[in-house]
Amino acid sequence: MSTNFKARDMAEHQIADLDAQLLRRKLRTSASPCDTKAQVDQRELKAFCSNDYLGLANHPELVAALAEGAKRYGVGSGASHLISGHSVAHDLLEKKLAACESKHIPNARALFVSTGYLANINAITGLSRLANPGEVSIYSAKLNHASLIDGVRLASSQTKAKVTLFDHQNLDFLEEALQQDKHSLKLIVVDGVFSMDGDIAPVKNLLHLAEQYDALLLVDDAHGFGVLGERGHGILEQSGVHSERIIYIGTLGKAAGVSGAFICAAAPFIEWLIQKGRPYIYSTATPPAIAHTLLTSLELIEGKEGIARRKQLNQLIQIWRDEMTFQNWEKTPSSTPIQPVILGSNASALAAAKLLDEAGYWIPAIRPPTVPVGSSRLRITFSANHSVDDVRELIKTLQMIEQEVKSN
Ligand SMILES: *Cc1c(COP(=O)(O)O)cnc(C)c1O
C-alpha cells in the first residue's frame, strides 16, 4: 500500500499558492434570510452584495407561495422533464415567461431551466449543434460571465466552433469580423448587463449587426430581468428591440428572488433545445413548487409593487451616482444596481473589504479570475429594500475607508 498520496499534496500545494497570491476565497455563512441586513458569524452586517435587486428573496407573498406550492405539488419533481418531471406549474411558468418577451421575440416560447449557468451552457452548445461541426462561428464579449465563457468553450470543443472575442464597447472590430465570416451559423453572445461592471450591452447595435450579417444574438440578461424596462421584462423591453434572431436568457434567482432561469426564443429554437440540449435532457426538473413560486414573483415584478420597487431602486442608484466621489478609486459607467468601485490590486481590495467588515458592512472583494488582473474591486449592489439613509451612510463610510487604505 502506498503511503504517498500525491493528489492530496497537490491540493494542499495549490491552495497554499492561492493564499500567497491573495486569491483564496472564503465562504461566509449567513444565518438570516437574504435581505439588506445579514446575520453573519453572530454579527449583524449591512449587506450591499446580493443580487436580490428588488428585495423579493424574503417577500412574504413568495414565502407563502412556496409553502402552498409544496402542499400542492410535493417537494421533488422525481425525474427530468422528458421522463416524468414536467409539471403543470412548469408549463404555466413557461407560458408566462414567453408572454413577458413576446413583444420583442416573435413566435416566442420559453424553456425553464434549473440555473442560469445551465441555461447558458444549454443554449450555446445546443444552438451550435444546429450546424455541422466546423460550420459554426461564435462571437463572445470579452467581459462575459463565466457561464457564457464555459458554454462557448464547450461548444468549441464539441463542434469545433470558431471563437472570436470582441470588446462590447467598440463594435467596429465585431463588424469587420462578421463581414468576412463564411461560416453557416454565426452566434453573437453577450451579457445584457455586465455582471462585474454594471454597464448595459448595446443590444440595438448588436441586433443590427446580427440582422445585417445573418447571425443569432444571445443576450444573457441575468441582471436585467426584473430590473430594466417599465414592467421589469428586462433589456429587450428597455431597448425596444424586436427580432426572431434574439435568444434571451433571464435568470430567476436574482431580481426575481427565487431560483432558476429561462431561455426565451422563437419556437423552433426552443423545440430544438428540448430535443438536443443535454443539460436540459439529463438533469432532474426543478421542484414544481419553485415554478409555482415564480408565478407569484412574476406578478409582483410586472405589477404595481414591481414598479414601486424599481422606482425606489433607481432613486438609490441616482443618489449614489450624484453623491459618491472618490479621490483615487474609480466608479464604472453604470446606471444599474451594480455599482462597483475599482481599487486595482488584490491587497487594496481585501484591505477595503476588511475595513468595511469592521464598520459593519458586507461587501466582499472581487478578484481575478472573476475580473481582469489589476482591476480588483468592491462590487456594491443596491436593493429596493435599502433606504436613502442606508446609501448615504455607506457613502460616508467608503470615503473614510478610502483615506485609510491610501495611508496604509
Ligand atoms: C448569475 C449569473 C448567471 C448564472 O445564473 P444562476 O442562475 O445563478 O446560475 C449567468 N449569467 C450572468 C451574467 C450572471 O450574473
Mind explaining what this structure looks like?
The protein is an alpha/beta fold and 408 residues long. It has two domains: 27-58 and 304-407, Aspartate Aminotransferase, domain 1; 60-302, Type I PLP-dependent aspartate aminotransferase-like (Major domain) (Aspartate Aminotransferase, domain 2, 3-Layer(aba) Sandwich), CATH 3.40.640.10. 44% of the residues lie in helices and 17% in strands. The chain has a seven-stranded mixed β-sheet, with helices on both faces. It has a four-stranded antiparallel β-sheet with strand order 10-11-14-13. A three-stranded mixed β-sheet has the order 1-2-12. Strand 10 (330-331) and strand 11 (338-344) form a beta hairpin. Helix 12 crosses helix 13. Residues 115-117, 120, 145, 147, 191, 195, 220, 222-223, 251, 253, 261 line the site of pyridoxal-5'-phosphate.
Describe the SSE topology.
Layout: H1 6-20, E1 37-40, E2 43-47, H2 60-73, H3 81-85, H4 88-101, E3 108-113, H5 116-128, E4 136-141, H6 146-159, E5 162-166, H7 172-180, E6 185-191, H8 203-212, E7 216-220, H9 235-239, E8 246-251, E9 261-266, H10 267-276, H11 278-281, H12 288-302, H13 304-323, E10 330-331, E11 338-344, H14 346-358, E12 361-362, E13 365-366, E14 376-381, H15 388-407
Parallel strand pairs: 2-12, 4-5, 4-6, 6-7, 7-8
Antiparallel strand pairs: 1-2, 3-9, 8-9, 10-11, 11-14, 13-14
Helix pairs in contact: 2-12, 4-12, 5-6, 5-10, 12-13, 13-15, 14-15
The structure holds pyridoxal-5'-phosphate.
Pyridoxal-5'-phosphate binds at residues 115-117, 120, 145, 147, 191, 195, 220, 222-223, 251, 253, 261.
